[in-house]
Amino acid sequence: MSKSSTILQVHDICRYFDEKEVIHNVSFQVEEGDIFGFLGPNGAGKTTIIRMILGLIKSDSGTIKINNYDIKSQFLNAINKVGAVVETPTFHENLSGYQNLLLIKNLHPELPKSRIDEVLEIVGLTSRAKDKVHKYSLGMKQRLGLARALINYPKIVFLDEPTNGIDPQGVVQLRELIVQLAIEEKITFFITSHILHEIEQICNKVAVIKGGHLVAHGYVKDLLSKEVETVDIVTEYKKDALKLMKPLDFIEDMVEIETGVRVSLKTGHSGELNKLLNNHLQVDYLIPVHQSLENVFFELTGGGKNE
């Protein structure tokens, strides 16, 4: 198996607005074929960082490289194999899907006209290529936006809230298409979304931004396999349970819930806790709480808010 290559490298970038530092020494990298989720509360700095990556604004320090080209000093080379789909792609509504893509193809004279048919087939719009775009559903427009982003054989595609407004079937189709392109074409995807369940299902890596700081970066599976597990203790004797667990050094956090107490504890100690509780008070159940990306996100960002 060949070693993956770095498609996007962000190193120690900072950005100031009115002498206030809003992005603080952010570094991460994205490899070929990654489906990379970029997460953070509103106002965390996601949009600013993406604008710097795409060369729309400049970082005040640090470096950004796409396909090993510096975005400041080698902008045209860096951006040459980049595709993007904004939240709601806009088109010439009275032109067909094919005609809209032809306008983009004409900006790339080196591309064969057959590339239009190729990308329409990739996104499943061949049968609707001659229909005017105003007849397209929102999901079809999103797929046409992806076709437009793919037309120049990109190495990396930026997707901003790609499932916004799409029906559940359309979401599944888009997700399957992204995974297929990442695996078969080795296209890297950089996805921003507020739907954490979708990110967990599709992305292999994520970065989490809070207040302009990078607070987490890595494989989704590693973020979910934390050293702390969460258990719901179902009991009528909440106060007694809290008092009993307070001195235990493997307990990280405790909070009362409607059915009892929710406990965060170091992984591997739930059996010990269960035995201790059952020896001292009546416990109905110990229920493990599934660790989701949403749980991790809210822990990292303090409830999804910037400080």
Percentage of residues in DSSP E strands:
25-35%
> What is the annotated CATH architecture of the largest domain?
3-Layer(aba) Sandwich
Structural class: alpha/beta
* Overall number of domains: 2
Rg, rounded, reads 24 Å
Secondary structure: number of strands: 14
Q: Spans with pLDDT under 50 lasting ≥5 residues?
A: none
The CATH topology of the largest domain: Rossmann fold
Biggest sheet character:
6 strands, mixed
Strand order of the largest sheet: 6-7-8-3-9-10
The rounded distance between the terminal residues' Cα atoms is 44 Å
The helix fraction, in percent, is 25-40%
CATH class of the largest domain: Alpha Beta
**Tally of alpha and pi helices:** 11
Query: Mean pLDDT, nearest integer?
Result: 88
Describe what you observe in this structure.
With 307 residues, the protein is α/β, with parallel strands linked by helices. It has helices at residues 46-53, 75-79, 97-105, 114-122, 138-150, 168-184, 196-202, 220-224, 238-245, 270-280, 293-301; strands at residues 6-17, 20-31, 35-39, 61-66, 69-70, 82-85, 156-160, 188-192, 205-210, 213-219, 228-234, 251-257, 260-266, 285-288. It has two domains: 6-223, Rossmann fold (3-Layer(aba) Sandwich), CATH 3.40.50.300; 226-290, Alpha-Beta Plaits, CATH 3.30.70.920. Helix content is 33%, strand content 29%. The protein has a six-stranded mixed beta sheet with strand order 6-7-8-3-9-10. Strands 2-1-4-5 form a four-stranded antiparallel beta sheet. A four-stranded antiparallel beta sheet has the order 12-13-11-14, with helices on one face. 31% of the residues are buried. The mean pLDDT is 88.
